[in-house]
Inverse folding.
């Protein structure tokens, strides 16, 4: 059986769907096939010609019927890629175990629609906040996190809590040489903010954590190694690039963390938030996370929470931000799903 794909507009966005089989059928309804399953199925058709048509998809095809599609929830992007990793991921053995991986994927989140903290499992927002503020301060010692009950870096810290020249060091103290050949330090976050204020439409608003000369001084090379800011029509957007993404444990954390950074930077330069563009290169599901992924895919997304500032902006800078300055309103996720970290 041969299939053709077409593009339809769903809430102003293009979405690829199967609309014909042998020029006889059209999709009439998607009762038990969710948008993320359609997306994953279409990718599979393109990447593996021998992927069978799922039974529940066959049941939704009716001859010569109009097409209807449920409104998209932003979280279906994540669920669709999780499904794709299960169905189409290439198994590889690596440094820390087997993974099902794909290369080159992207998700986009309109932050005006809600804060992209997954609802199909509870994600620990306190740790997300603590680590981001820790990095913005330029800190690289794990003790400041453990004092707050945050354990995400425990696997990599040495006996003194040191993590080397990781994110905080690169963001706030990038080391190189200037035009005269002298050693210099660049505070990339301060430079970014100053640049945004002076020339918001510049295409050079980039922060990088990938310093090849210092990789051997890092407990873990940066996974989210660069981000770029973009300003248009009074809104501030951010694009982040991941060289490697543990999709079950890491991606939910990283998506929310860069959404938070977008809010913090937007406020710093007096703009509304726009979009978070989240690009992954080696995106993978660890083999020991497969059952947890299946459990999560059986759940339906709930409404996204809203981000709110607690009180007006009264002096200080982004570097003075505390967890008491903002809150998430209406976060009612499904229960957490435990999984082991592959260090």
């Amino acid at each position: 059986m041969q299939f053709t794909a077409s593009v339809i507009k769903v809430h102003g966005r293009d979405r690829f769907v199967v609309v014909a089989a042998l020029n006889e059928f059209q999709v009439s309804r998607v009762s038990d096939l969710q948008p993320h399953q359609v997306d994953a199925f279409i990718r599979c058709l393109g990447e593996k010609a021998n992927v069978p048509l799922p039974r529940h998809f066959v049941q939704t095809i009716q001859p010569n019927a109009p097409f209807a599609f449920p409104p998209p929830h932003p979280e279906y992007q994540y669920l669709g890629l999780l499904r794709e990793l299960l169905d189409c991921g290439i198994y590889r053995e690596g440094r820390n175990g087997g993974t099902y991986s794909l290369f080159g994927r992207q998700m986009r989140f309109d932050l005006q629609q809600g804060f992209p903290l997954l609802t199909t499992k509870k994600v620990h927002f306190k740790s997300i906040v603590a680590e981001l503020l820790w990095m913005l301060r330029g800190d690289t010692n794990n003790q400041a996190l453990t004092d707050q009950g945050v354990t995400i870096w425990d696997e990599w810290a040495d006996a003194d809590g040191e993590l080397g020249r990781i994110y905080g060091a690169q963001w706030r103290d990038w080391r190189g040489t200037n035009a005269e050949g002298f050693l210099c330090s660049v505070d990339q976050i301060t430079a970014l903010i100053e640049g945004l204020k002076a020339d918001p439409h510049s295409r050079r608003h980039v922060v990088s954590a990938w310093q090849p000369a210092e990789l051997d001084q890092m407990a873990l090379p940066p996974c989210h190694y660069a981000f770029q800011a973009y300003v248009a029509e009074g809104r501030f957007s951010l694009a982040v690039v991941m060289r490697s993404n543990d999709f079950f444990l890491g991606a939910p954390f990283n998506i929310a963390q860069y959404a938070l950074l977008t809010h913090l930077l937007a406020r710093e330069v007096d703009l509304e938030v726009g979009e978070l563009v989240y690009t992954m290169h080696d995106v993978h599901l660890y083999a020991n996370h497969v059952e947890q992924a299946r459990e999560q895919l059986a759940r339906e997304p709930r409404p996204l929470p809203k981000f709110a500032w607690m009180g007006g902006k009264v002096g200080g800078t982004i570097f003075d931000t505390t967890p008491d300055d903002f809150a998430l309103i209406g976060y009612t996720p499904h229960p957490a799903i435990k999984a082991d970290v592959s260090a």
Notes: Residues 53 and 106 are 25 Å apart (CA to CA). The longest strand covers residues 272-286. The mean pLDDT is 85. The chain is about 25% helix and 30% strand.
